[in-house]
Design brief:
With about 325 residues, the chain is an all-alpha fold. It is built from 18 helices and no strands.
Length: about 325
Amino acid sequence: NKAISVINLFITFSFYIFGLSLITNQSWTVYDVFSLLLVPYGSLVLIISYCYGRKNLIDDNKLLSLLIITFFVLAILFHRGMAMSRNLIFEDVSLVASVYYILCIVPIVLAIIPGKWKLLPFLVLALVLLVSGKRAGMIAFVLSVLVYWNGGNSKEKKWINFIFLCIIVLVVVYALPYIDSMYELKTIDRINSLEKDGGSGRNVRWLACINAIANSNFVELVFGHGMGAAWRDFEGEIHNDFLSVFYEYGIFAFILYVVFYVKLFWIWLKMRREKYRHEKEFLMTWIYSMTLAMFSFFIIEPTYITASMFCFGMFMADWMQSKNTVQC
């Protein structure tokens, strides 16, 4: 059972770094204890959503209504929050980053929303991403649109997808300058400056982390520098989960984390071969998770992981339901 295998792998990864943190942690403040308890959070969400999905259809009416309402409420609250923050003299980083919750819940919304309305979540997502100015989110969004556009075997389906893509591109092209000016986001300038600033200094942090790993002793390479070491030693997030996991928890945790994404991609390949009905949405979830893991933080600060692990669990459960395997 491929689904159970990848879930067990993520559980192993989560409790490995949990146990490692428990042994090596030298500070026991309330914040440290809370951070430690959050380590296995993503795996718990994955387990619960998978077991729920094995007993409930993905297109259950109650789930459908709840998720669609949640998606649009989040989008409205985000837009309202951004509109109110224009009057502030500082940028509310947590508010801007909350757009990733909306991003990560889109695949499951697309899976259950009626076909004639599937364009709407993409348009809403495009607009909130433009308002946020988050470049990593925009990269993930563009890749996911291309995944959806590439679907369909018939000429009619491909033409529909091509028109669908054109509508989204036109909305983005015409809305970007207006939204950029309205919210004073400087998104266009931020996109143009990627080559110069390396993504708000991410390249500098990545190189510093790589050099620190290369200069680590044997024990640090195997077991890492300890939970929270990246934030402490580099005075902030590295904005790359793979480097953060290697630096804080060592090479074995890094390997488990990489294999987890490889196995998820392998599951998608099997879904595609078996023509599973939501294989595109599963791939979108993988794209969003990988993008956030590479350019933001996903497992190190378990926030947006809630939506992605919920999607992974529900899609794998639904896939196994379609294969008529033994229930959880």
